[in-house]
Structure to design on (314 residues):
């Protein structure tokens, strides 16, 4: 009887090992049906907070994508609202880095103690080891997002400076890295495609993209940030996520996303996680461009280094 039980245990362990070998690095959450992995922005689910990182006023947010959603070094995607006059106080992260995105209005961003006014829609990188803050300097509630990636998988940290940055002196020209999410800046210089396939062209795919932040911008396993447009009726090239996972956020339009063999509808302000080992493409089923913000995080720091050296194609 004991030998029989031992044999069953060995068979079970072998089966588990085989499963891991087939799908390395894929969180269990990623094996859920595709439709259940797509997260809609729902302001009724926002959690109210006061004095975030010793910031002014109040704000509200919810986590759309959680730790590990696209790979071990991805920590989260938060989405929320910051009322006029409120903000997130001056603070450091020493093992992680973030990208703050404002979808409308304007905000005063601080990075390393230097503050400038940024008009949305825009994104600001807050690199690992650099202090940062945000204040809604407009008159309307600000639609806001925050992505975070880690240098050490599963780790996050913060150190508050007790400064809300309200009334800070402004630089006319930002001394930190920021980009405008402007469709007019997306040029047909090439299209994203499957590794090993002939490079697709924007004319053949109806898809154009702009790299907002390259791998060299980030100090963590964060690989890049892209801004993508898929024309009405077009399907983007299939992307194989061999070395990086990607989190997509739909800025405008509607359509479908195909991940592996599954297809599901997507709409404005949906978040879609695509993990390591999966393939993905988007089809625009609407009448306006399908506009996507793409955040890519590498499998690990070694892979990120290989991406920067060109040894691995992201």
């Amino acid at each position: 009887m004991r030998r029989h039980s031992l044999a069953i245990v060995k068979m079970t362990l072998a089966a588990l090992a085989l499963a891991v070998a087939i799908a390395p690095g894929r969180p269990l959450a990623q094996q859920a049906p595709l439709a259940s992995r797509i997260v809609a922005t729902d302001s009724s689910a926002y959690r109210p907070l006061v004095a975030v990182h010793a910031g002014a006023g109040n704000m509200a947010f919810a986590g759309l994508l959680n730790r590990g959603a696209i790979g071990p070094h991805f920590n989260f995607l938060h989405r929320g609202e910051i009322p006029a006059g409120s903000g997130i106080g001056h603070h450091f992260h020493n093992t992680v880095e973030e990208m703050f995105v404002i979808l409308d209005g304007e905000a005063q961003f601080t990075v390393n103690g230097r503050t400038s006014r940024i008009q949305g829609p825009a994104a600001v990188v807050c690199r690992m080891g650099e202090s940062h803050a945000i204040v809604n300097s407009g008159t309307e509630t600000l639609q806001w997002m925050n992505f975070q990636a880690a240098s050490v998988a599963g780790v996050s940290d913060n150190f508050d400076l007790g400064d809300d940055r309200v009334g800070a002196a402004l630089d006319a020209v930002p001394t930190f890295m920021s980009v405008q999410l402007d469709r007019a800046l997306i040029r047909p210089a090439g299209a994203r495609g499957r590794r090993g396939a002939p490079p697709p062209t924007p004319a053949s795919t109806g898809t154009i993209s702009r790299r907002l932040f390259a791998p060299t911008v980030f100090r963590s396993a964060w690989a890049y940030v892209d801004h993508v447009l898929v024309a009405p009726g077009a399907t983007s090239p299939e992307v194989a996520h061999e070395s990086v996972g990607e989190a997509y956020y739909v800025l405008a339009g509607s359509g479908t996303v195909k991940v592996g063999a599954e297809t599901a509808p997507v709409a404005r302000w949906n978040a879609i996680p695509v993990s390591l080992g999966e393939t993905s493409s988007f089809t625009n089923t609407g009448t306006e461009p399908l506009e996507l913000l793409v955040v890519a995080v590498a499998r690990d720091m070694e892979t990120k280094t290989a991406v920067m050296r060109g040894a691995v194609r992201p």
